C-alpha cells in the first residue's frame, strides 16, 4: 500500500530555470551527437544516456537503482557553445531591453521617482492589490520605453526591434544592425534586481538573462520513449530527433569557435543552432519553416505536446479515457422503467462489478465463478486478499470456485439491478449524466425509456451513448441517492418537471380521458395489462345496456387517495373551448378530488414535459419521487396502449378540406392581396405615412409582411378550426399540444403565406426582381415570395423556389446557433465552475471572494421552488381548504 | 423639461438604491462574521457615481440596500477600491 500524503499544496510559483539550477539537477552532460553504438546500446554522453532513466523492460537505472515502473527519470544538460534565445520569452526580452538602459542596465526612470515607485509597489503588494500592481508595471514600462536618454548615466539609449520569432536588431544611423544573443544576454545581466522588480519581474526565480539559454536541459528518457517496430527497427521520439540536431549543431559551433573559423561561418552555424533550439520548443512558430521528418511530416515540439484539444492539458489532464465504460447505439423500449437502462449481454460480460465475498453471498458468487467470463451471468476475475488477481479465463474454475472464502473479491458480470451512469454528449447539463438500473437484454443496443430522451436530448437516428460502472460501494450509494433518473424529474432551472409526456403520450392521454371514450371490460383489461395493475376494477360508469368504464376511472386507479388537483387543460387555451366554471361543457378544466379524476381531459398541460404544476410535479412535491416515477412508469404505458387501440394516424384525407372552405380561404387571400395592392398604390402616389424610425420603403415592407403572414395565417386558421373537429386526429394532436399548432395546420391545408429571409420579403436575385419571371420593381405579393398554396394542394415551381429560400435560412440559423452557443457554454462554465454555495448560504469563489452574500438573494434552491418563488400560496390554500 | 444643465442629485433617483458608509467598528464586525478579508468582498470603484456622491474613500465598506424581486430588500456590501479593472 502506498502511504497517504497529508500535505496540502499552499502555493505554486512559476519561475525560469537558471543555468546553475539546470546544471544542478542534471545527471550528465551531453557531449556527443551519437546515440547508439554499433551493438545498439546507448552511448554514455549521448541523448539516450541510460543515466537519464530506465525505460527498457528489465533495465535497472544506474542512478536510482529502480526498474522501469518506478524510475522517475533524470534530467541531463547540454552546455551550449553560444547563448541562444528562448522563443517563448522573446517578447518579454524585448520589453526588458526597451525599458532599460543599454549602457548601465537601469530602468529609464529618474532616481527620485524610482524610489517612490518602489515604495508604492511594496504597499500594493501588502494590500494584495494585484490588479493595481499590474497596471503600475505597465505604466513604468511604458514610461521607461519612451525615454531616449538614460536619466542615470546620461547616455542615449539604443532602440531595439524584434524580428519574429527570435532575432533582435538595434537602430543605427544607417539602418538596423543584428544583435547576437550574447549581446542581448549581456544587457539583461546588467539590470539590477530592484529594477527587475519595477518591471514586474522576479529576480529570485526569473532573472531576465535566464531567458537567454546558455545551458539546455535534456529531458529524461521517459519523456521521449523510443518505439520498437515489428521489424525490430528502433524508432525514436520526435524530441530525441530534435535533440540530436541540437547537439550536433552545438558541437559544430564549438569546433568552429575553437579552431578560429571566420566570423561569418560561426554566425551561420550559430543561427542554425538557434533554429534547432527554437523548433525543439515550438515547431509552429510563425516566421520560420517548421522542422520535418524525412517523410515530410512535421515534428512535434514541446509546445505541440501541451497545446490544444489533444494536448497534455485538455487531452490528458482535464479529460481522460476510463475503464469500466461502454458505448453503443441507443434504441427505445417503452417497457422499461424510466430508471432503467437496457444493457446488451455482450456488454454485461465485459463490464464488471467488484463484489466482496461474505458468508451470505458465497454460494451465489461460486456459481458466477463457475460460469466464468464467457457465460452470463459469470465473473471475470478473482482478487485474493493478498492482492493477487486471478483471471478466470485461464484457470480451473471449479477449483477457483472451491477456493472462494469471505474476504475475496469477485469481479462479476453486470447483473440486473446494478446501478450505472448513463451519459450522452454534449454533456451540457447535470442531467446529461444520470444513474440507471441495469436490465440485461439481448441484442446489441442500449435501451432506454422514451420519457428520458428530453434530458439527454437523445433520439434514435443513430445516437450513441456511454455507460460507466461505479466500482466502489460509496460511489454506488452516492450515485443511487443523487443521480438516479427519478431524482432529476424536477429541473434546477425553475423547479418544474422536465421529464414528461411527449407526442403520442399526450394524444393517448387525451383519447383515453375524453368524455366520448367508453371502454368495455375487454378494453379496460387491455389498457391495464401493460401497467401491471393488480386489484379490483372500479364500478362501471355505465351499467346498462352493457358495462362501460370511462378512461377517467382508469387514471384514478393510479392516483394517491388524498390527491387534489385542478388545472386548465391545453385544449382549454383555445378561445372556443375556454371555460372558467367547474361545469365545463368542453371538459377543459381538470379536477381531481381525493384521488378521483372528476372532470377534464388529460393533455399536455397535465402530463407534458416542461409543464410546471402538472400532475407529476405535484405528485413529487407531495408524495415523493418514487410515487411520481411509478405513476409515470405505469400510467404512461396506458396512454400508449390507448393510441394503439384507437389507431391514431394521420393521412392526406385528414388535411384535405371541402370546396366551400377552400373558397372561403381563397376569399381571404384575395382580400389581403388587394389590401397589399392598395398599400403599394399609396406608396407609389407618395401618400403612405412612414412609421417612426422607419423609411418609407421599410414601412411598406413591414405593413405587407404583417398583412400577408401572421394576420393571414391566423385568419385562415380560424376558418379551418371551424371546419375541423376534435374527431380529426390532426386536430387532436394540434389542440392537445402533442405536436403541431393551428398555424402548421393552416400551412398544410391552407397556404404557406409570405416567405421571408431575415425578416424581409424575398427580394434578392436580379436587379429589382427575384426571378426573370417578374417585371422589375414589381412589389406585388406574388413577385416577392408569397405562396398562396399549402402542402395539400402542392406548390408551383416559383412558390417551391420561394419556400426553399426561406427554408435554407432556417438551416443556416440552427448551424450557426449550435456552434455559437456551444462556445458560450464553454466559456460560461469555465467562469462559473468554482463557485460554491457555502453553509452560511453565501456564494464564494475559490480564494474566498464573496460573490453573493446569500444565494439568489433569498437563499432558495430553485429545484425546490415554484418557478423561482419559494412558496406557492395558492396550492397550500387549495390543499387545506378545498381539499 | 427636466432639470437640464442643472445639478442632479443622483441619490434621490428612484433607480439608485440607498448606499451608506459602514462605520469602521461595524465593518470589522461584519468582516469577522463573514470570515473574510476586505478584499474578498465584492468591489466598487472609487469613480462610481454613488461612491463619489456619498464621499466614500478607498478602504471603506459601503452598504447597499437593494430592492430584489426575490427577497424584498437585500443588503449588499462593497469594498471601495481606487480603480476596478480585472481581478488577478
What low-confidence regions of chain A span 5 or more consecutive residues with pLDDT below 50? Answer: none
CATH topology of chain B: Eukaryotic RPB6 RNA polymerase subunit
Report mean pLDDT of chain A, rounded to a whole number.
88
Show the largest interface.
Answer: A-B, 23 and 24 residues
Major sheet strand order of chain B: 1-3-4-2
CATH fold naming of the largest domain in chain A: Barwin-like endoglucanases
| Helix-strand makeup class of chain B | alpha+beta
Main beta sheet of chain B: strand number and arrangement? Answer: 4 strands, mixed
Rg measurement of chain B, Å:
15 Å
Written account of the structure:
The complex is a heterodimer of chains A (883) and B (88). With 883 residues, chain A is α+β, with helices and mostly antiparallel strands. Chain A folds into five domains: 87-210, no CATH class; 325-488, Barwin-like endoglucanases; 504-646, Orthogonal Bundle (Enzyme I, Chain A, domain 2); 652-804, Topoisomerase I, Chain A, domain 4 (Orthogonal Bundle), CATH 1.10.132.30; 836-882, no CATH class. Chain A has 28 helices and 29 strands. Chain A has a six-stranded mixed β-barrel with strand order 8-16-9-15-14-17. Chain A has a four-stranded antiparallel β-sheet with strand order 10-13-11-12. In chain A, strands 2-3-4 form a three-stranded antiparallel β-sheet. In chain A, helix 12 packs antiparallel against helix 13. The longest helix of chain A has 36 residues, at 797-832. Chain A is globular. The mean pLDDT of chain A is 88. With 88 residues, chain B is of the alpha+beta class. Chain B has one domain (17-81): Eukaryotic RPB6 RNA polymerase subunit. Chain B has helices at 24-34, 49-54, and strands spanning 18-22, 43-45, 61-68, 72-81. In chain B, strands 1-3-4-2 form a four-stranded mixed β-sheet. In chain B, strand 3 and strand 4 (72-81) form a beta hairpin. Chain B is globular and about 45 Å long. The interface between A and B is medium-sized, with 23 and 24 residues.
Amino acid at each position: 500500500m502506498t502511504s497517504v500524503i497529508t500535505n496540502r499544496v499552499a502555493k505554486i510559483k512559476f519561475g525560469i530555470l537558471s543555468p546553475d539550477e539546470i546544471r544542478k539537477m542534471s545527471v550528465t552532460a551531453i557531449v556527443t551527437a551519437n546515440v547508439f553504438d554499433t551493438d545498439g546500446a546507448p552511448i554514455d554522453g549521448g541523448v539516450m544516456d541510460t543515466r537519464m532513466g530506465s525505460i527498457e523492460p528489465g533495465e535497472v537505472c544506474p542512478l536510482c537503482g529502480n526498474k522501469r515502473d518506478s524510475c522517475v527519470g533524470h534530467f541531463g544538460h547540454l552546455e551550449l557553445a553560444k547563448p541562444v534565445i528562448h522563443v517563448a520569452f522573446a517578447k518579454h526580452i524585448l520589453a526588458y531591453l526597451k525599458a532599460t538602459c543599454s549602457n548601465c542596465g537601469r530602468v529609464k526612470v529618474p532616481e527620485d521617482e524610482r524610489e517612490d515607485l518602489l515604495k508604492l509597489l511594496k504597499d500594493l503588494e501588502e494590500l494584495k492589490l494585484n490588479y493595481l500592481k499590474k497596471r503600475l508595471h505597465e505604466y513604468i514600462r511604458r514610461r521607461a520605453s519612451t525615454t531616449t536618454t538614460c536619466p542615470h548615466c546620461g547616455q542615449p539609449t539604443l532602440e531595439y526591434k524584434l524580428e519574429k520569432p527570435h532575432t533582435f536588431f538595434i537602430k543605427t544611423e544607417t539602418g538596423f544592425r543584428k544583435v547576437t544573443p550574447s549581446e542581448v544576454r549581456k544587457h539583461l545581466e546588467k539590470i539590477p534586481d530592484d529594477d527587475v522588480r519595477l518591471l514586474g519581474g522576479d529576480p529570485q526565480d526569473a532573472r531576465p538573462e535566464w531567458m537567454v539559454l546558455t545551458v539546455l536541459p535534456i529531458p529524461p528518457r521517459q519523456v521521449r520513449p523510443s518505439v520498437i517496430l515489428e521489424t525490430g527497427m528502433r524508432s525514436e521520439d520526435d524530441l530525441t530527433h530534435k535533440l540530436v540536431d541540437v547537439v550536433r549543431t552545438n558541437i559544430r559551433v564549438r569546433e568552429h569557435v575553437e579552431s578560429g573559423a571566420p566570423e561569418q561561418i560561426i554566425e551561420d552555424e550559430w543561427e542554425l543552432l538557434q533554429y534547432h533550439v527554437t523548433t525543439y520548443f515550438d515547431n509552429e512558430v510563425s516566421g520560420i519553416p517548421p522542422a520535418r521528418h524525412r517523410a515530410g511530416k512535421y515534428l512535434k515540439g514541446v509546445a505541440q505536446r501541451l497545446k490544444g484539444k489533444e494536448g497534455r492539458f485538455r487531452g490528458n489532464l482535464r479529460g481522460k479515457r476510463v475503464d469500466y465504460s461502454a458505448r453503443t447505439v441507443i434504441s427505445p423500449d417503452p417497457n422499461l422503467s424510466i430508471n432503467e437502462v437496457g444493457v446488451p449481454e455482450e456488454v454485461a460480460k465485459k463490464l464488471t462489478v467488484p463484489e466482496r465475498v461474505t458468508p451470505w453471498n458465497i454460494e451465489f458468487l461460486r456459481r458466477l465463478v463457475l460460469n466464468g467470463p464467457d457465460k452470463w451471468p459469470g465473473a471475470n476475475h478473482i482478487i485474493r486478499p493478498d492482492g493477487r488477481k486471478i483471471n478466470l479465463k485461464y484457470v480451473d474454475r471449479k477449483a477457483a470456485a472451491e477456493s472462494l472464502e469471505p474476504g475475496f473479491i469477485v469481479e462479476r458480470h453486470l447483473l440486473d439491478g446494478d446501478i450505472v451512469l448513463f451519459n450522452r454528449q454534449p454533456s451540457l447539463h447535470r442531467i446529461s449524466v444520470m444513474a440507471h438500473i441495469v436490465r440485461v437484454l439481448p441484442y446489441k443496443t442500449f435501451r432506454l425509456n422514451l420519457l428520458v430522451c428530453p434530458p439527454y436530448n437523445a433520439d434514435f437516428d443513430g445516437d450513441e451513448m456511454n455507460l460507466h460502472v461505479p466500482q466502489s460501494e460509496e460511489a454506488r450509494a452516492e450515485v443511487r441517492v443523487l443521480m438516479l433518473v427519478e431524482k432529476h424529474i424536477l429541473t434546477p432551472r425553475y423547479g418544474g418537471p422536465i421529464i414528461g409526456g411527449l407526442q403520442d403520450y399526450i394524444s393517448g392521454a387525451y383519447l383515453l380521458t375524453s368524455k366520448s371514450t367508453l371502454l368495455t371490460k375487454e378494453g379496460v383489461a387491455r389498457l391495464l395489462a401493460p401497467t401491471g395493475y393488480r386489484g379490483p376494477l372500479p364500478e362501471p360508469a355505465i351499467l346498462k345496456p352493457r358495462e362501460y368504464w370511462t378512461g377517467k376511472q382508469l387514471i384514478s386507479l393510479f392516483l394517491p387517495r388524498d390527491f387534489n388537483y385542478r388545472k386548465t387543460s391545453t385544449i382549454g387555451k383555445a378561445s372556443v373551448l375556454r371555460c372558467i366554471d367547474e361545469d365545463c361543457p368542453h371538459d377543459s378544466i381538470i379536477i381531481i378530488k381525493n384521488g378521483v379524476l372528476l372532470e377534464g381531459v388529460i393533455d399536455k398541460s397535465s402530463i407534458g414535459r416542461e409543464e410546471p404544476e402538472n400532475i407529476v410535479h405535484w405528485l413529487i412535491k407531495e408524495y415523493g419521487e418514487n410515487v411520481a416515477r411509478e405513476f409515470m412508469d405505469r400510467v404512461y404505458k396506458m396512454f400508449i396502449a390507448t393510441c394503439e387501440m384507437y389507431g391514431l394516424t394521420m393521412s392526406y384525407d385528414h388535411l384535405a378540406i371541402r370546396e366551400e372552405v377552400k373558397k372561403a380561404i381563397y376569399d381571404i387571400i384575395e382580400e389581403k392581396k388587394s389590401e397589399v395592392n392598395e398599400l403599394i398604390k399609396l406608396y407609389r402616389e407618395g401618400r403612405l405615412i412612414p412609421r417612426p424610425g422607419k423609411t418609407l420603403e421599410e414601412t411598406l415592407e413591414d405593413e405587407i409582411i404583417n398583412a400577408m403572414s401572421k394576420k393571414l395565417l391566423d385568419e385562415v386558421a380560424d376558418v379551418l378550426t371551424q371546419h375541423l373537429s376534435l374527431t380529426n386526429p390532426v386536430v387532436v394532436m394540434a389542440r392537445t399540444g402533442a405536436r403541431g399548432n393551428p398555424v402548421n395546420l393552416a400551412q398544410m391545408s391552407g397556404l404557406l403565406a409570405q416567405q421571408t429571409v431575415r425578416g424581409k420579403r424575398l427580394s434578392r436575385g436580379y436587379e429589382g426582381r427575384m426571378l426573370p419571371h417578374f417585371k422589375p420593381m414589381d412589389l406585388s405579393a406574388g413577385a416577392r415570395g408569397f405562396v398562396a398554396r399549402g402542402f395539400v394542394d402542392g406548390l408551383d415551381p416559383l412558390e417551391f423556389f420561394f419556400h426553399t429560400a426561406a427554408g435554407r435560412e432556417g438551416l443556416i440559423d440552427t448551424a450557426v446557433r449550435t456552434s455559437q452557443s456551444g462556445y458560450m457554454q464553454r466559456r460560461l462554465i469555465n467562469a462559473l465552475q468554482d463557485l460554491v454555495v457555502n453553509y452560511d448560504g453565501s456564494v464564494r469563489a475559490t480564494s474566498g471572494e464573496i460573490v453573493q452574500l446569500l444565494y439568489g438573494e433569498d437563499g432558495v434552491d430553485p429545484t425546490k421552488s415554484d418557478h423561482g418563488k419559494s412558496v406557492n400560496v395558492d396550492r397550500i390554500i387549495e390543499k387545506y381548504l378545498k381539499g | 423639461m427636466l432639470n437640464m444643465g442643472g445639478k442632479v442629485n443622483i441619490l434621490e433617483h428612484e433607480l439608485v438604491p440607498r448606499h451608506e458608509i459602514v462605520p469602521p467598528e461595524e465593518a470589522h464586525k461584519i468582516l469577522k462574521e463573514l470570515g473574510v478579508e476586505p478584499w474578498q468582498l465584492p468591489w466598487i470603484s472609487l469613480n462610481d457615481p454613488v461612491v463619489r456622491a456619498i464621499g466614500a474613500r478607498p478602504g471603506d465598506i459601503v452598504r447597499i440596500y437593494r430592492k430584489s424581486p426575490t427577497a424584498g430588500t437585500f443588503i449588499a456590501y462593497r469594498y471601495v477600491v481606487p480603480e476596478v479593472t480585472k481581478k488577478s
